[in-house]
Automatic annotation (TrEMBL):
Keyword Flavoprotein listed: no
Protein name (Swiss-Prot/TrEMBL): Uncharacterized protein
The entry's keywords: Membrane, Transmembrane, Transmembrane helix
Sections of the chain in a coiled coil: none
Keyword hit for Transmembrane: yes
Entry's transmembrane regions: 111-136, 156-181, 193-211, 226-245, 257-281, 293-314, 326-344, 401-424, 444-465, 486-508
């Protein structure tokens, strides 16, 4: 506990200038904090109807009544007047008087860190492994055999399973949209979105069935045969984006700007996936152990800039999305990138290398979350093209968004550890003959436990810094909104598992010399 407290004080010293300042009088703060104005309403604002209380600070003096000061007007002594600037400073920093002791904060951080990084991550990661196992037995059955040597029954099973799984992928963005906006904002639009997406999905499934029934695909599509499917999926995304743009353009500062806000997170998710699968993985496979470790260390930096760009874009949609739901746009990006980059760590298998990499990644994640305020403030200054006060950036929306982003960052990095390790040992069990199931399970527990403990330790440091020194409501939000975070994670883990399992097993298959391609194809679960 003492180590966590010392490290948190060190990290706090680098961000104090931003973390210690609020400017409630700033125009941007006032705009985001102001009440709903009926005369200016279009009926689509997130606060058009009553909503739950917004949680944006870990410690708030507003929940603790008023501070009453009694003055004796008859006293001959001259009353000391407190300067107005000092009053504003005291009012802005009043939350510091509400903080518990640093030792209690550390204990609480370790407790919540365990809930997020270990318990919840194991549940979501186990679901990912279950979906991957079913995919191994259905869509990817006989995956590394010559496609013409696969029995026709198994070809049809693979084709139909692939078509069914695409339904979850087509609905991925749509379901996230339903969680992002409040019911009154999508009134009359849900059916249109569902119908258009379902029709395009039916064309996708029909195309797969026709190719299989004609004896063209043999349940494994070529790159050229995949082009129509990619076009259909992009049309589906554009259809959904256009309908949302058409609905909410009256609230946005610009039509193009709103479209970018909605499209950027998904676009960057696919961009990271393409770059990692087609460039980083092949380069990784060709290197020796030392260079592999270096690639695994620095590869996650490629997603850091994209996360900052998306975060800055989304923060300005203050009248469109509920502050407590905005993080949903970030979930595919954070979850997907965590899984793709953790693959290279899991493949190392050397406990020493895994420990070193885990410590480096954990420290980097603490640094990223702790300096999020500073980084966003600098980007805010660049976009404004003028100097702004430190506190002008810390508005309620941004405070809540930083809390939610800290939660999903901790949760999905830990979930990725369990998920990727599970797929690795499932791949060895199904495609290799080297070990028994019990031996592989023991190795899975050891590798996952080491990484999860490291992740838990650094997440506890991160929680202590963000709550005790920066007053970011990470623990308060998780305590009151954990069910929604878990539900969003479950909804996103299904399409992510369906999308990422094949690239992961192809990457791992390239690392392993012996596979079961000489074995006959069998029906699932036999």
């Amino acid at each position: 506990m003492r180590i966590i407290e010392i490290l948190s004080h060190i990290m706090y010293s680098f961000t104090r200038s931003v973390a210690d300042h609020y400017s409630p009088e700033d125009s941007e703060f006032t705009a985001e904090s102001s009440d709903y104005v009926p005369l200016q309403s279009t009926g689509l604002e997130w606060n058009h109807q009553p909503v739950d209380e917004l949680i944006y600070q870990e410690y708030s003096h507003s929940d603790n009544g008023f501070t009453i000061r009694v003055l004796d007007a008859c006293s001959p002594e001259k009353n000391e007047e407190i300067p107005e600037d000092q009053q504003d400073e005291d009012r802005a920093m009043a939350w510091k008087r509400l903080r518990p002791s640093s030792l209690r904060t550390v204990r609480k951080s370790m407790y919540f860190g365990a809930l997020i990084s270990i318990l919840t991550a194991m549940v979501i990661g186990s679901l990912y492994c279950l979906i991957s196992y079913v995919s191994f037995q259905t869509m990817f059955n006989c995956q590394f055999h010559q496609k013409k040597s696969i029995p026709v029954k198994i070809q049809w099973m693979r084709t139909l399973s692939d078509a069914a799984s695409c339904g979850f992928i087509y609905m991925w963005f749509l379901v996230n949209i339903f969680f992002l906006f409040l019911p009154h904002q999508l009134q009359g639009l849900r059916r249109k979105l569902i119908f258009g997406t379902f029709m395009l999905y039916c064309l996708d499934a029909l195309y797969r069935v026709i190719l299989q029934s004609s004896g063209i695909s043999h349940s494994r599509l070529t790159k050229i045969q995949m082009i129509p499917l990619i076009v259909l999926f992009l049309v589906s995304l554009c259809w959904q984006g256009y309908q949302l743009w058409n609905r909410f353009q009256v609230l946005s500062r610009g039509r193009i700007f709103f479209f970018v806000q909605i499209a950027a997170p998904g676009f960057f998710t696919f961009l990271i996936g393409i770059v990692t699968v087609y460039f980083t993985y092949p380069m990784y496979n060709e290197e020796n152990e030392n260079r592999k470790l270096l690639i695994a260390i620095f590869a996650p930096l490629s997603g850091l800039l994209l996360k900052v760009i998306v975060r800055i874009c989304i923060q300005s949609s203050w009248n469109i999305t509920h502050p407590g739901y905005t993080y949903i746009l970030f979930v595919p990006l954070y979850f997907g990138s965590a899984i793709l980059f953790r693959v290279m760590q899991a493949e190392l298998e050397n406990i020493s290398a895994i420990t070193i990499l885990g410590i480096i990644h954990g420290a980097a994640e603490v640094l990223e979350r702790s300096t999020m305020v500073v980084i966003d403030h600098i980007c805010h200054v660049v976009l404004k093209r003028r100097a702004v006060s430190w506190g002008s950036f810390r508005t309620p929306r941004r405070e809540r968004l930083m809390a939610d982003i800290a939660i999903i960052s901790m949760l999905y990095e830990s979930t990725a550890i369990v998920s990727v390790n599970g797929v690795l040992y499932l791949h060895k069990f199904i495609y290799l003959k080297e070990n028994s199931l019990s031996t592989l399970f023991q190795r899975f527990l050891v590798a996952s436990s080491v990484q999860l403990v490291i992740e838990w330790f650094f997440n506890s440091i991160s929680l202590a810094i963000e709550t005790y020194h920066q007053n970011i409501a990470v623990m308060a939000v998780w305590q009151r909104k954990w069910k929604r975070h878990v539900l969003v994670a479950v909804i996103n883990v299904i399409p992510l598992a369906l999308c990422s399992t094949l690239p992961i097993i192809q990457f791992m298959h390239g690392q392993l010399a012996k596979s079961r391609t000489d074995q006959p194809c069998k029906m699932p679960f036999s």
